[in-house]
Amino acid sequence: MNESCTVESGRVCVEVSGLRKSFGTSEILKGIDFGIRCGEIFVIMGPSGSGKSVLLKHLIGLERPTAGSVRIDGHEIDSPELLSKYRIAMVFQSGALLSSLSVGENVGLYLREHRIHPPAEINRIVREKLAIVGLAGSEEKMPTELSGGMKKRVAIARALVMDPQLILYDEPTSELDPLISVTIGQEIVKMRERTHATSIVVTHDRDLGFGIADRIALISGGRILTLGTPDEVRACDNPEVRTFLNASYQPPEEADRT
Amino acid sequence: MFRDIGQLAILAWRTLRSLPLIFRHYRKLIDQLFEIGNASLLMSCILAVFIGGVLALQTGPVMVEQGLNSVVGAVVGLSVCKELAPVMIAVLIAGRIGSAMAAEIGSMAVYQEIDALRTMNINPIHYLVLPRVLAVCIALPCLVVFADLIGWVGGALVCMSNPKIGIPWQAYFNDLSKVVDTLDVLNGLIKSLLFAAIIGLVGCHQGLATIGGPRGIGRSVTKSVVNAIVLILITDYFITRLLLTLDL
Ligand SMILES: Nc1ncnc2c1ncn2[C@@H]1O[C@H](COP(=O)(O)OP(=O)(O)OP(=O)(O)O)[C@@H](O)[C@H]1O
Ligand SMILES: [Mg+2]
Fold it and tell me: What is the CATH number of the domain that holds A94?
């Protein structure tokens, strides 16, 4: 693990301090503080409805915090040029594919719109990334023709195409079978090795979380219960943490309910 | 309502500012144009025949009774190209295209597709709004040209065939062409350009502002049509005043 944020190309660190968010009168995030080191795989776990997706949206500037701040490499997240300066990708919980575009067009969208490569090269990259998520040859399909898990995999391919420096996954494996889940988990690790990207993974999948994480944060009720390496979290004796970790071993319906 | 207008003005300004980028998005523009033409050309023509027809029917018998046979062509010709074709076609397009824009962009907003665009650093205004607004601005004046011609023909057909009017085709168009000149047609086209901008901007704005699931989409669609029509009619009055003072 990297101890400090040495400046190295492709590496981005994230700092969240005093983050609060209210929707109307209900406060969803009640003061979140953590720092994510460059090139780290940071896993966020927590019960459904605890505000994980909302937190993730703050990290990419889709939501404005009520109080507190999010900094990427020292820059405020809401500064307009941040997204042009850093490549930050997000895999949405629902996939969020553009339903009017085919799978191939969705995956290649970023490269095409920013004119990063000529069309032939884009097609090659699209094929390559789709193959990684096990969807080789489905470029021509429309999102409506895909199952939930396939959409999620296309969304992951779309994020990989950006060659991101920071990549946020919202439950990347929640609709996938164990085999493809493992592949996706391996890809998250490989991606870090290949590009030194910083990854933030929100998941309910205990195996995935403990398998790939450098550090894990457990969130509940808008606060961080515990934060540490997988071993530290396993050893944590906070009763709420224990119930959550044990509960996720319970019958599969429990874990699948996302 | 006032907040809507404020946001609309901001959207208009941002769209205008992004105009030079259209060359990057010209494929989307072509697609949109095709869609609008496909969806509305036939409808506009049918609408226009009946607008011209009913005008002739309302004015013709009275004027002929007063011995003003030569005025019918002029009245129908002027009303169609300066007022009725631009406004009615705009209302039709607001219902046909403005609503579709609000629905499409609205569902993109609800299903986080717009958020996804933002995370890819793709500006939704460049990617979605610009091609759509520009497409209506091009398509609506073209449709109005068709509607003018067909509206005049509709008037002529009624004048010819209605026994109480009985003005022959040739005479009708003679009277019409004596009064109606290119400037009058241009006058209507300028109006329709403005209406087109209203339709496109209102549709896109309502779409982008959609919140709260499928019901929110329905709300946006309704609002886009109603707001566009109201704005069109209000603008129509003021632009007519303006064009009158400019003597166009
Ligand atoms: N736009 C919004 N307006 C109002 N409330 C919201 C909004 N978005 C989220 N919430 C509320 O915030 C809470 C946390 O939602 P969030 O989607 O972050 O949960 P989550 O931890 O991702 O759950 P899951 O594991 O089921 O995905 C929920 O109670 C939800 O009702
Ligand atoms: Mg979630």
Answer: 3.40.50.300
- List CB contacts (< 8 A) between A113 and chain B: 120, 122, 127
Per-residue exposure over A7-46, b if at least 16 CB sit within 10 Å of its own CB, e if not = eeebbbbbbbeebebeeeeeebbeebebebbbbbbbbbbb
Quick: pLDDT tens for B89-118.
999 999 999 999 999 999 999 999 999 998
- Residue A89 in any domain: the answer is yes
Contact predicate A38/A8, CB 8 Å: yes
**Number of folded domains that form chain A:** 1
Predicted structure pTM score: 0.86
- Residue A254 is assigned to a structural domain of this protein: no
Mean of pLDDT over chain B: 89
What Cα–Cα distance (Å) separates residue B129 from each residue in A11, A219, B33, B151, B159? 34, 38, 13, 32, 44
Residues near ligand 1 (Cβ within 6 A) = A 23, 28, 46, 48-54, 93, 258
| Contacts with A162 from chain B: Cβ below 8 Å | 120
Q: Do A83 and B119 touch (CB under 8 A)?
A: yes
Quote the domain boundaries for residue A75. 10-249
Residue A2 lies in a domain: no
Would the ipTM clear 0.95, i.e. be above it? Answer: no
CA nearest ligand 1 atom 17, residue: A53
In the predicted model, is pLDDT for residue B167 greater than 80?
A: yes
- Quote the CA–CA distance of B206 and B218 in Å, as a whole number: 11
Task: Check CB contact of A192 with chain B, cutoff 8 Å.
Answer: no
Percentage above 70 pLDDT, chain A: 91
A255 found inside a domain: no
- Index of the ligand 1 atom closest to the CA of residue A63: 1
